[in-house]
Design goal:
By secondary structure, this protein is an alpha/beta fold. It is 53% helix and 12% strand. It has 2 domains: 3-173, NAD(P)-binding Rossmann-like Domain (Rossmann fold, 3-Layer(aba) Sandwich), CATH 3.40.50.720; 177-283, 6-phosphogluconate dehydrogenase C-terminal like domain (6-phosphogluconate dehydrogenase C-terminal fold). Helix 4 (74-81) packs parallel to helix 5 (99-109) and helix 7 (175-201) packs across helix 11. The protein starts with a strand and ends with a helix. Bound molecules: nicotinamide-adenine-dinucleotide (NAD) and prephenic acid. GO terms for molecular function: NAD+ binding; prephenate dehydrogenase (NAD+) activity; prephenate dehydrogenase (NADP+) activity.
């Protein structure tokens, strides 16, 4: 490819840029966002060759555009390039929920462009910004693409090749499946981690709790250090699937509370053993 354009050169966009540069996947990578200092930093770190604050300037002549802003900004970005992007240009994204991105693209273009390939790398960190970008972030991680019936298969193949160049394994899912599965595996754990830290932060012994916290609290709360804008947007744009999971979780927590309250040691042992078996069976 000649030119790749990345909107939002933070952790996800910056990591993609670094990986593609390492493999010489394209001749030039152009960054675009609203924040000049982020773009300058991305250029200093060697993630992008050049940058502009003008979306049309960035998108013009691009072979591929990657959207790596928070999901709530995707519609505005698409609207800003809608009149200046070639029909041949492949557009893809890394947003954490997919129905909202498909809806945003339909609103921006009037219909989902055939060469728009919704995507989501299942890799990341609780740190955001290009300073935390890493060329190896996607190695041996899955990337989910959620094309619809009208998506051009050659665009899907090109996006697949791009991710495989970064060392990722690409899999296809439909949009609804993606949003439900990710609500369970990623969005619920983040909501729980934020709630856990909020719970602890409002207890009397908060300073002692942080002082004496070892692996348990650190591991369970790690993702509460994630970017609040990103997670605000995900909760807004995958609302229904997340609420379904929080409701199931609340029921399970209540059953657990009842077992503890009743001193039901057999019940507790069975529940913990079942959960451990399920987790060990998949993650070892
Ligand atoms: N962080 C993760 O672990 C992770 C993993 C997979 C997918 N994602 C998704 O990737 C996307 C980016 O996340 P990130 O962690 O790289 O965030 P980040 O904060 O590191 O980077 C986001 C970038 O977008 C830019 N930006 C914000 N609003 C913009 C706008 N209106 N127009 C143009 N640029 C704008 C910011 O300047 C920033 O450089 C999000 O949609 C997120 O849901 C994140
Ligand atoms: O490892 C982490 O810190 C992450 O939060 C990564 C993680 C996840 O939940 O697994 C976060 C959001 C994504 O959209 C994909 C990956």
């Amino acid at each position: 490819m000649e030119k790749i354009c990345i909107f939002g050169v933070g952790l996800i966009g910056g990591s993609l840029a670094l990986a593609l540069k390492e493999k010489s996947f394209c001749r030039q990578i152009v960054g675009c966002s609203r924040n000049e200092s982020h773009l300058k930093r991305a250029q200093d770190l060697g993630a992008i060759d050049s940058w502009t604050l003008d979306p049309c300037e960035a998108a013009k002549d691009a072979d591929l555009i990657f959207l790596a802003t928070p999901v709530g900004a995707i519609e505005a970005v698409l609207k800003s390039i809608q009149g200046c992007v070639s029909e041949q240009t492949i557009i893809t994204d890394g947003g954490s929920c997919k129905q909202s991105v498909v809806d945003a693209a339909e609103r921006a273009f009037g219909r989902l462009p055939d060469r728009f390939v919704p995507g989501h790398p299942i890799a990341g960190k609780e740190k955001s910004g290009v300073d935390h970008a890493d060329a190896k972030l996607y190695v041996d991680h899955k990337v989910i693409l959620t094309p619809i019936e009208t998506t051009d298969p050659t665009a899907v193949a090109a996006v697949t090749e791009m991710w495989e160049t970064c060392g990722a394994n690409v899999q296809l899912l439909n949009v609804g499946q993606h949003d439900q599965v990710l609500a369970a595996t990623s969005h619920l754990p983040h909501v729980l981690a934020y709630a856990l830290v909020e719970t602890v932060a409002n207890t009397t012994y908060v300073s002692e709790i942080f002082e004496f916290a070892a692996g348990g609290f650190r591991d369970s709360s790690r993702v509460a250090s994630s970017d609040p804008t990103m997670w605000r947007d995900i909760c807004e744009y995958n609302r229904d699937a997340i609420l379904e999971m929080t409701s199931l979780y609340r029921d399970r927590l209540e059953s657990l509370e009842q077992l503890i309250e009743a001193g039901d040691s057999d019940g507790l042992f069975e529940l913990f053993s079942r959960a451990r078996k399920v987790r060990d069976g998949r993650f070892g």
